[in-house]
Amino acid sequence: MHLAQLKYLLPRLVGQGIMLSRQAGGIGSRGPGESQLELNRRSVRNQITDIERQLKVVEKNRATVREKRLESSTFKIGLIGYTNAGKSTIMNTLTSKTQYEADELFATLDATTKSIHLGGNLQVTLTDTVGFIQDLPTELVSSFKSTLEESKHVDLLVHVIDASNPYHEEHEKTVLSIMKDLDMEDIPRLTLYNKADLVEDFTPTQTPYALISAKSEDSRENLQTLFLEKIKEIFERFTCACLFLSPIRFMI
Hints:
Largest sheet: 6 strands, mixed
Distance between the termini: 63 Å
């Protein structure tokens, strides 16, 4: 996030330099503003270079962890959606742990993966990622690339949508567009319209779907049921024919 802010700021320092240069005393003088502008630019460039260097190390480490996770037979679920849709609330509900959540943009700035049980002995991993935004700048995609890629290697994508937001249809299109750019369209998807307690006579635009309220008392049980039903649809049924070569004795 900080990298995107710096890249956004860099070309806009020119205007600040003009303001500073006007502080110079004489006509035709270089002025303190111009030199300050160069200092500011150099400082921002150095910060960008340093952060990009750190990101390469982080991406390498994440790639190693991701490879180990992919080698595992554990079913992987990824939460995606527009920023402030309620993904972290769902994560907290299912894991009974605290993931920062707030009514603000980019409350989650990093991918978080945790193990959860969905009834019986079925254990899956659940990943909460950064929220998408409309007209995502190139710099932002680059900065969040390592975070967004966490969603590319899951078995099920759970698209969380804020049903109470009057612009939720635009948000849906934004998420679907970014998913297309990231080659994530072929991943099985479950659409959850969240914050059902804040809407009336809601008409969904994505099907199939489920209308939920992640903060309701029975949300944990409802979410587990929805996930299990979707996983059953994804799994391929097969019949195991067992041939015993010798009698089996049961001891009571």
